[in-house]
Design goal:
The protein is α/β, with parallel strands linked by helices and 262 residues long. The protein is built from ten helices and ten strands.
Length: 262
C-alpha cells in the first residue's frame, strides 16, 4: 500500500504561552491538492512552519511518504522531497530569472558545494532552467534581475523556484495574495499546470482560488481542523459557515477568482 504523501498525527505547538496548534491530524494523498483555510490567527503559517521544519512540534508526528520529518531541519526535509514558498517572495534579488531557476535545480541534479565549477557548462541544469522558464511563462524575462520583475512575475518565479528542485510535495503559502483578478486567474492556471502529478498543500484566502483548485479543503480554526472534505461539502458545512466563512461568502467564492464552481 502506498504511504500518504503527507501525514500529520496529533501535532501540537505552543508559542508565547498560547496553544497555537491543538492536536492537528491531516492526511494528504499522493497527487492530491489540498487547501488550508481559516481566519487570521488560526495557525495556518505555524502549521506550514511545522511541516517544513522551521519549527519543531511539541507533540505529535509528521510524516513525508511514510518517513518521520518532525524535528528535522528545513534543508533535510527539502532533500527528502518537500519544498515550500512563502507569503513574501524569497528570491535572489540580483540574480536573473534564469539564474534563480538554475540555482533551484542544482542539488536535485546532484551538484553539491563546489567553488570551481563553471555553471554555464552544466548542460542539464541549464536545460532544466530553460524548461522552467517556459513552464512559468517567463522566458521573455530570462535575463531580468528578480528585483526588477513585477509583483505577479516574482510570485510566478517563486513558484517555479519552489518546484524546479524536483519536490514531490509542494507547500504554497498564499500564492495569489495581492494580485488583481486577471493576475489571479493566470496564477491559478500556472499552479494547476506545474503541480500536475505532484502533491499540493496550500494556504489561500481567496475562496475562488480554493474552490477552483483544491480536491479537498481543510478548515483551521483556533488551531484545530474543524472540517476536512471536498469543496462542495465544506461549502455546505454549517459549522464552517458559522465559524468562519458565512454562507454568503461561500456562495460568491467562485466569482471572486473567476474560477468554476466545484
Amino acid at each position: 500500500m502506498t504511504a500518504p504523501a503527507l501525514q500529520l498525527n496529533e501535532v501540537r505547538k505552543r508559542l508565547g504561552g498560547s496553544d497555537i496548534i491543538r492536536g492537528v491530524s491531516l492526511t494528504v494523498q499522493p497527487g492530491e491538492r489540498v487547501a488550508v483555510i481559516g481566519p487570521n490567527g488560526a495557525g495556518k503559517s505555524t502549521l506550514f512552519n511545522l511541516i517544513s521544519g522551521r519549527l519543531a512540534p511539541d507533540a505529535g508526528q509528521i510524516r513525508l511518504h511514510g518517513a518521520r520529518i518532525d524535528g528535522r531541519r528545513p534543508f533535510e526535509i527539502n532533500r527528502l522531497g518537500l519544498s515550500r514558498s512563502f507569503q513574501i517572495s524569497h528570491l535572489f534579488a540580483r540574480l536573473s530569472v534564469f539564474e534563480n531557476l538554475r540555482c533551484a535545480t542544482l542539488w536535485h541534479l546532484g551538484y553539491r558545494y563546489t567553488l570551481w565549477r563553471w555553471l554555464n557548462g552544466l548542460h542539464d541544469a541549464n536545460a532544466r532552467a530553460h524548461e522552467w522558464l517556459h513552464l512559468t511563462q517567463l522566458a521573455h524575462r530570462r535575463d531580468v534581475p528578480a528585483m526588477h520583475l513585477s509583483y505577479a512575475e516574482q510570485r510566478a518565479l517563486e513558484i517555479g523556484v519552489t518546484l524546479a528542485g524536483g519536490a514531490s510535495v509542494v507547500l504554497l503559502d498564499e500564492p495569489t495574495a495581492g494580485m488583481s483578478a486577471s493576475e489571479t486567474r493566470h496564477c491559478v492556471q500556472l499552479i494547476r499546470r506545474v503541480t500536475q502529478g505532484r502533491t499540493l498543500l496550500m494556504v489561500e484566502h481567496d475562496m475562488g482560488v480554493v474552490f477552483d483548485l483544491a480536491d479537498r479543503v481543510a478548515v483551521l480554526a483556533q488551531g484545530e481542523i474543524i472540517a476536512f472534505d471536498t469543496p462542495a461539502a465544506v461549502r455546505a458545512c454549517p459549522r464552517v459557515q458559522a465559524a468562519y466563512l458565512g454562507a454568503g461568502a461561500l456562495a460568491q467564492a467562485p466569482q471572486a477568482a473567476g474560477g468554476a464552481a466545484p
